[in-house]
Design brief:
The complex is a heterotrimer.
Chain A (H helix, E strand, L loop, with lengths): L5 H19 L6 E2 L2 E2 L3 H24 L10 H20 L1 H13 L7 H22 L8 H4 L2
Antiparallel strand pairs in A: 1-2
Chain B lengths: L1 H14 L2 H18 L6 H8 L8 H26 L5 H15 L3 H36 L2 H18 L4 H15 L2 E2 L6 E2 L13 H19 L1 H9 L8 H23 L7 H13 L12 H16 L1 H7 L5 H12 L8 H4 L1 H32 L4 H20 L2 H19 L4 H24 L6 H4 L1 H31 L1
Antiparallel strand pairs in B: 1-2
Helix pairs in contact in B: 1-17, 2-4, 2-17, 3-4, 4-5, 4-6, 4-15, 4-17, 5-6, 5-12, 5-13, 5-20, 6-11, 6-13, 6-14, 6-17, 7-12, 7-20, 7-22, 8-20, 9-18, 9-19, 9-20, 11-12, 11-13, 12-13, 18-19
Chain C lengths: L1 H18 L9 E5 L6 H17 L3 E5 L6 H9 L6 E6 H10 L11 E17 L7 H10 L5 E4 L5 H13 L4 E4 L3 H9 L5 E5 H9 L3 E6 L14 H4 L7 E9 L4 H16 L1 H9 L12 H22 L5
Parallel strand pairs in C: 1-2, 1-3, 5-6
Antiparallel strand pairs in C: 3-9, 4-7, 4-8, 4-9
Helix pairs in contact in C: 2-10, 4-12, 6-12
Classes of the chains: A mainly alpha, B mainly alpha, C alpha/beta.
Chain lengths: ~150, ~500, ~325
């Protein structure tokens, strides 16, 4: 199978974005020039994005160009998964749990990770962040609400 | 003139008290150290450190806060250069060439130049504020919604010039930025737009959330996938500080950047944000070989950094002389002054001259401190690049998460950032640059607001943009810039088409 | 290393176990401010909170949770554990105008809270650009009624204090000026000083210096008495519009079911703060109005919130100002 040109992927991405915006904004009033409504600006911009997308797709079909790179899933899955885990853990469990969690989960994204080192690093970083953000800067970020209440 | 000298003398007498010097130093140092953490941009830094200043005496507190402000700005540039994660809109430009320099083993030179450019710009801007603060205030008041709209259009023209590679893709990214800026509750009608009914989106997308996703997380993902990209950074670390040749090369851009930044910084409505973009566009246009830009051009760091710092400083003019904060950081400053019982307004200058002039003098001292603090720190920052990436990226990750959470104490902001990380990864794969998107995002909100305000005031008459001279002038400049930027590439495209 | 940390955590956990049986408060109290740091509500919260912390003998940590006109932070506060360790600073918008503005509001200002007490009000002023033709409030009323189509009124976004209070003014005068929305008071004020728009209503703290400097003109202050910060500005009653009485008030609330004795402790700490000379001075410098003793009780605040919701709902609904 011939590789798909990058521009075609990019163009389809823009077309999807434009379509999504037009659909989400379809119930907003456009208004008139003397009282522009909430919908006019997003609609105009979305149409322009769609046109850019169309131009990219046509260009890609005619000229080809650089092939679309392969997507890898390991990095996005663990890096972004770690951030998501942090988001869910930080309020109920506090930084004491969310900190090591984000570092350990994130470390799965790389094959070079040495586990013991990462574990120690995670604990030290967490302690450092708790000291810095909670105690030195007095930010209201939860540390460990389950045993100590804040 | 004599009055000015007297005033400055009073200011320096205030700022040079040992106590105030100490506060200025602490502010700069802490601001730099917090601001340098990836994920913690200047606004977040200032919001975090603001409560610390509440217990001090007003003049000291404000001097310290101003120090934090410069420190945070500078710390943000450091992160942008070292790890390509800009903490705010203006650092986006610094990251373009600054990070390329770092990859070539010239991180020290980029950092040193940034510090020197900031200092020079700060010195000039201090004089500008002291001498011309009052007359320049009137300039800000000339700007109604129509003029702002024109200015934003000009900003978009800069964004096109900024682009590397395909102009079509850059335009698409700017438009995507404009679209993302429209997300949230509509200002005029209160309707929710494009929010999918999510509470986290009802107030729009935070700049830091978008920037950390598109730059921070996506950059980590890119580095993990292409180990060779980061090994370059660590391969060789050249001279730590810029030499004479580099300084000579940077001088012109620095001066031009200072001028542009000073001017744009005065405009309320975050004109300062345009400074670095404008400076970069100008330098790229007048360079003999514009292709060096984006590959580690020294002018691409010195000019924008100077513009950034000059603008950051002249942004105090509307606050100090009018009492109206031009941007989010200055709004925080208003809060800081108010909590100390000083309500910023046109009378601060006459009612508490030692505060007013002390603050102006401390701006210069703050810039000097930054230079003193940061030149030795350059070595330390550069050494940080030697930390193995397998430890660096988890550290970036945890700082990003905590920084994002702290902006609004909101866990859903962290989730949103992760989502934009995925978007950023897709953009890389599709060959899009995130920088124009961020600029479109920053300008988008103002662009729409000012367009609607101007048309409401003119009762729907589009002629308002042409009839008002300032607005017409700005629009004309925008058209010229666009023509200059787009025409060569269209021509090149055609030539290429003929060759095919 | 991990074991060490776990052990340390266990020690902390055990240590805090019996402590929770001790008298309230035995750890820092979180005060949710539903607006960004540095704004009028945040400043009042920090000034009052500082003194309250001294009375309570525990730190008060301000947590700024901005969003959706303050309702994001108040929603979080309403859902917090009712143990007295999370309280919040509500204000005229979140506990008065919000039910009319946000149909999907997830709390009921009159039912989901234990009112602690009113902290301070900031008076609302009606101001116009320097060269705006009307000279007095009476002139302004006539001018608005005869020139409706021409007049531009600035506000800081749907649901903001400047928007709701001016909506009330227009509803009382039965006029409709052209509304121009800005993002925040700063840009709106900039265009008022620059003469791009004609008039607006806003909190005194944002306007006082501009009025003193003569950059804008003040028509009236919407309080029963003149403000010491602006002794020359007449009250709406003096100037001929007595029914226009409105204040951007700020008050402390605890989540529903917070024990009565804890609410009483907090009310007492607030009361002491409002009696403290230094705290009073800082609030008065902002142009704030400090409630008298009768207006500081929890019961008074409870009734006041009901009255505010009843007052704002019809006005805002009639004006069609609904933030969906």
């Amino acid at each position: 199978m011939r590789p798909i040109p990058q521009d075609i992927g990019a163009g389809l991405f823009l077309l999807a974005l434009a379509g999504l915006a037009l659909w989400l904004g379809s119930d907003l009033a456009g208004g008139r020039l003397n009282q522009i409504g909430a919908g006019m600006f997003p609609r105009v911009v979305a149409i322009a994005i769609g046109l850019c997308g169309l131009a990219l797709v046509i260009g890609g079909l005619r000229k080809g160009g650089i092939a679309l790179e392969r997507w890898q899933w390991r990095g996005p899955l663990f890096i972004l998964g770690a951030a998501v885990a942090f988001g869910f853990a930080v309020r109920p469990l506090g930084l004491a749990v969310a900190g090591p969690l984000v570092i350990m989960l994130g470390a799965y994204a790389s094959r070079e990770t040495r586990w013991l080192e990462t574990l120690v690093f995670g604990v030290v970083m967490t302690a450092f962040c708790i000291g810095l953000f909670r105690f030195a800067l007095n930010l209201p970020i939860p540390v460990a609400p389950w045993p100590i209440g804040y | 003139m004599e009055a000015l000298a007297d005033n400055l003398a009073l200011g320096f007498a205030t700022a040079f008290s040992p106590q105030n010097l100490a506060f200025c130093f602490i502010g700069c140092l802490v601001g730099t150290l917090i601001g340098v953490l990836p994920g913690v941009g200047p606004i977040a830094t200032i919001a975090m450190l603001l409560p610390l200043t509440f217990q001090f005496e007003p003049t000291s507190a404000l001097i310290m806060l101003a120090g934090i402000y410069y420190g945070a700005q500078y710390g943000g540039s450091t992160t942008a250069i070292l790890v390509n994660i800009p903490g705010e809109a203006t650092a986006v430009v610094t990251a373009l060439d600054g990070h390329q320099l770092a990859r070539q083993g010239r991180a020290g030179i980029a950092l040193g130049l940034a510090a020197i450019a900031s200092f020079c710009a700060g010195t000039v801007a201090t004089v500008v504020i002291a001498a011309l603060g009052e007359p320049l205030t009137r300039l800000a008041l000339l700007f109604g919604p129509a003029e702002y709209f024109a200015l934003m259009v000009l900003g978009l023209a800069f964004a096109v010039v900024l682009a590397r590679g395909s102009i079509l893709k850059a335009v698409a990214m700017i438009l995507a930025g404009l679209l993302l800026a429209a997300v949230g509750t509509d200002l005029e009608t209160g309707e929710e737009r494009l929010t999918l009914g999510l509470d986290a989106l009802s107030d729009g997308i935070d700049f830091a959330v978008l920037a950390m996703g598109l730059f921070g997380f996506a950059e980590v993902l890119r580095n993990l996938e292409t180990p060779e990209a980061r090994s370059v950074v660590r391969a060789k670390i050249g001279r730590l500080l810029p030499g004479r040749a580099e300084l000579r090369q940077a001088l012109g851009p620095m001066l031009r950047g200072t001028g542009l930044g000073s001017l744009l910084g005065i405009l309320p409505g975050n004109g300062a944000v345009l400074g670095p973009f404008a400076s970069y566009s100008v330098e790229k246009k007048i360079a003999k070989d514009p292709t060096r830009f984006g590959q580690g051009a020294i002018e691409g760091v010195a000019g924008p950094e100077a513009a950034n710092n000059a603008g950051a400083q002249t942004a105090f003019i509307p606050l100090l002389t009018l009492g109206i904060p031009p941007n989010a950081v200055m709004a925080l400053m208003v809060g800081a002054m108010t909590i100390h019982g000083i309500i910023p307004g046109p009378q601060v200058m006459t009612k508490s001259p030692e505060l007013f002039w002390g603050m102006i003098a401390s701006m210069w001292i703050g810039n000097l401190m930054l230079l003193v603090i940061n030149l030795p720190l350059v070595g330390l920052w550069v050494k940080l690049l030697k930390v193995p990436y397998r430890l660096m990226f988890p550290a970036i990750l945890i700082f990003c998460c905590i920084g994002i959470y702290s902006i609004n104490n909101s866990a859903s902001d962290v989730l949103l950032t992760a989502f934009f990380g995925l978007v950023g990864y897709a953009l890389i794969k599709f060959g899009f640059e995130p920088a124009p998107l961020l600029l479109g995002f920053v300008l988008g909100r103002l662009l729409e607001e000012k367009l609607r305000q101007a048309l409401i005031l003119s009762r729907g008459d589009l002629m308002t943009f042409v009839e008002r001279p300032v607005s017409a002038g700005l629009l004309l400049v925008a058209v010229v810039i666009l023509a200059v930027a787009v025409l060569p590439s269209v021509r090149a495209g055609r030539e290429k088409a003929f060759q095919d | 290393m991990l074991r060490l940390v776990l052990a340390a955590l266990a020690v902390v956990a055990l240590g805090s176990g019996p402590a929770s049986a001790q008298a309230y408060p035995n750890r820092p109290v979180t005060l949710i401010v539903p607006f960004a740091a540095g704004g009028p509500t945040d400043i009042i919260a920090r000034i009052v909170g500082e003194h309250m912390a001294r009375t309570l003998g525990q730190q008060i940590v301000v947590e700024n949770v901005a969003g959706a006109g303050g309702t994001t932070g108040i929603t979080r506060g309403a859902q917090a554990k009712p143990d007295g360790y999370t309280i919040m600073m509500g204000h005229m918008g979140t506990h008065g105008a919000a039910p009319a503005l946000y149909p999907r509001l997830r709390y009921d200002p009159t039912k989901d809270f234990e009112p602690i007490g009113l902290a301070a009000g900031t008076p609302i002023l009606i101001v116009g650009r320097k060269a705006f033709p009307p000279n007095t409030l009476k002139d302004l009323i006539t001018y608005l009624q005869t020139n409706q189509a021409k007049v531009n009124q600035a506000h800081a976004g749907v649901g903001s204090v400047s928007h709701t209070t001016c909506t009330m003014l227009q509803s009382q005068l039965k006029v409709k000026s052209t509304l121009v929305a800005y993002r925040g008071t700063g840009p709106a004020l900039n265009d008022l000083v620059g003469g791009q728009v004609d008039y607006m209503c806003d909190q005194i703290v944002n306007l006082v210096e501009q009025i003193k400097a003569g950059n804008i003109r003040a028509y009236a202050i919407a309080t029963p008495e003149r403000s010491p910060a602006l002794p020359d500005v007449p009250t709406t009653k003096e100037a001929g519009l007595p029914q226009y009485q409105v204040s951007a008030w700020n008050a402390l609330f605890a989540p529903k079911d917070t024990p009565k004795e804890i609410v009483a402790r907090l009310n007492d700490a607030l009361d002491k703060a409002l009696d403290d000379a230094a705290t009073r001075k800082r609030l008065l410098d902002l142009g704030g109005v400090i409630p008298d003793k009768a207006g500081r009780t929890s019961a008074w605040l409870g009734n006041f919130v009901k009255a505010e919701v009843d007052r704002w709902t019809p006005i805002l609904k009639a004006a069609g100002a609904v933030a969906e």
